[in-house]
Write a structure and sequence with these properties.
This protein is α/β, with parallel strands linked by helices. It has 15 helices and 12 strands. Bound molecules: nicotinamide-adenine-dinucleotide. Pfam families: ELFV_dehydrog, ELFV_dehydrog_N.
């Protein structure tokens, strides 16, 4: 079967004759990509393991109706690499991984499909540990969990960590305080005006922390009732979603959707700080990250300040304890401080500073792992496998 890999690779590149999977892996420096196929149950999945220097590759499984196999591969490579950076900068002993299941999350979910996928995850013996991501719900995660223990973010009733939002929001709150310290020489949010975009899970928990400290919140959501209810609870003011960017505030806290720092919004910002829980807020990382630096706006890189969710599920590996997860998320304050100082010292945008520091940590820890050591002392539900990979 010497020609089998060639056949597969041709099929995967049929949309673009110049697309090369191995070139992509080399460019992004991935360790391994696993293509999972089970036509009988309709499973087409790709698991990408980017880097396991620091520990097992952890990252969610996304189900999405990709327009092509190439698009799915590119997405899983990009996302898994992002997870390596996120874990590394957050001080976690985890590598980066991600999985995508190609299919319509509204019509193509079956128990057999997810259990089949769970078996593929299990076959990797803990090199990849999965979690919930876009297009997935608790029900599918439980199906996967019935075939493999290498799952995090499972319900509290099953020994997991449950809803990550309170921990994510606490990390965002501490990250915002670190930015305030940098901008104003004090991390107190008392009297600070904060424009809060979104009134969902993360935004609500964040608003309660900030309001308790005396911040004045301006809140919007595309569902006005939600925003109104939160504004009433925290003594904030309801604002129109279209007006949120141009408000005369100290801090803008995006907690809704991505791409909100873009060509249309850039000139509207009057704030000193942009720091919030939403993912992928820079529409064009390089261009808009540089523009924020040029405008003198302090920016907390999204993947760092919202790492509480990852920190929360990572705690499951050592035996979940919410207080410890919150304490670790609180360390986002120090991480953001380090990034802002590095960004200032080197005159580079904060997201570039963060990537640099993440790469440095992977390199340095990789170096010290060259030396013999006895096994690390880790217990908990996945303690045994965790031990194997972090040493
Ligand atoms: P959520 O769905 O509970 O809340 C999002 C809210 O944003 C919803 O109420 C929605 O109506 C609102 N919204 C959508 N578009 C909007 C717009 N244009 N203007 C104003 N409001 C709008 O989601 P969440 O769990 O709170 O997550 C919020 C963000 O944080 C997302 O980007 C998510 O990827 C990111 N994040 C969440 C976690 C977590 O632990 N939940 C972890 C890391 C990152």
């Amino acid at each position: 079967m010497i020609d089998a890999p060639v056949k597969n690779s041709k099929k995967l590149t049929e949309e673009n004759p110049n697309f090369s999977l191995f070139n992509q892996l080399a460019n992004y420096e991935h360790e391994q990509v696993v293509i999972c196929s089970d036509p009988e149950v309709g499973l087409k999945a790709i698991i990408a393991i980017h880097n396991t220097t620091l520990g097992p590759a952890l990252g969610g499984t996304r189900m999405w109706n990709y327009e092509s196999e190439e698009a799915a591969i590119k997405d899983v490579l990009r996302l898994s690499r992002g997870m390596s950076y996120k874990a590394a900068i957050s001080g976690l002993n985890l590598g980066g991984g991600k999985a995508v299941i190609i299919g319509d999350p509204h019509t193509e979910k079956t128990e057999a499909l997810f259990r089949s996928f769970g078996r593929f995850v299990d076959g990797l013996g803990g090199r990849y540990i999965t979690a919930e991501d876009v297009g997935m719900t608790e029900r599918e995660m439980e199906w996967i969990y019935s075939e493999t223990k290498y799952v995090t973010g499972i319900p509290k009733a099953l020994g997991g960590s449950g809803n990550p939002s309170p921990v994510t929001a606490y990390g965002v709150y501490m990250g915002v305080k670190a930015c305030a310290q940098k901008a104003y020489g004090s991390d107190s949010l008392e009297g600070k005006k904060i424009a809060l975009q979104g009134a969902g899970n993360v935004a609500s928990f964040f608003a309660r922390h900030a309001a308790k400290e005396g911040a004045k919140l301006y809140i919007c959501d595309i569902y006005e009732d939600k925003a109104k209810e939160l504004a009433e609870e925290v003594g904030g003011e309801l604002v129109d979603p279209d007006d949120i960017y141009g408000l005369d505030v100290d801090i803008y806290t995006p907690c809704a959707l991505g791409g909100v720092i873009n060509d249309d919004t850039m000139d509207q910002f009057k704030c000193d700080i942009i720091a919030g829980g939403a993912n992928n807020v820079l529409d064009d990382e390089d261009k808009h990250g540089q523009q924020l630096l040029d405008k003198g706006i302090i920016y907390a890189p999204d993947y760092v300040i919202n790492a509480g969710g990852l920190i929360n599920i990572a705690s499951e590996l050592e035996g979940y304890n919410e207080d410890r997860a919150l304490q670790n998320a609180g360390n986002i304050y120090n991480t953001i401080t380090d990034i802002l100082n590095y960004s200032e010292d080197h005159g580079i945008p904060a997201h570039v500073a963060s990537n640099d520091l993440a790469e440095k940590r992977i390199k340095t820890i990789g170096h010290i792992k060259n030396k013999y050591s006895s096994k690390a002392n880790v217990s908990g539900r996945l303690g045994e496998v965790y031990k194997r990979f972090i040493d």
